[in-house]
Write a structure and sequence with these properties.
2 strands; two-stranded antiparallel sheet
């Protein structure tokens, strides 16, 4: 999610995990997935030094050992 935002996406679709969560855990599974995805995205942003999801810097993406900028 963070990589897509850094590369200019305004939205990111995450479909398949929701279907798995619904199939395996029903409503509770989907809620657990939402919490986990939110927490993981927040943690990734913190580790990358980003504070605003609408202004994620492209330079945090590394390709071949060199930051994209």
């Amino acid at each position: 999610v963070l990589r897509a935002l850094a590369l200019g996406a305004r939205a990111v679709l995450v479909g398949r995990p929701y279907l798995w969560a619904l199939t395996l855990g029903g409503d509770a599974g989907v809620l657990a997935l939402l919490r986990r995805l939110s927490l993981e995205t927040a943690n990734a942003m913190t580790l990358a030094g980003q504070t605003d999801a609408t202004r994620v810097e492209r330079g945090i993406v590394v390709a071949g050992g060199a930051p994209l900028s």
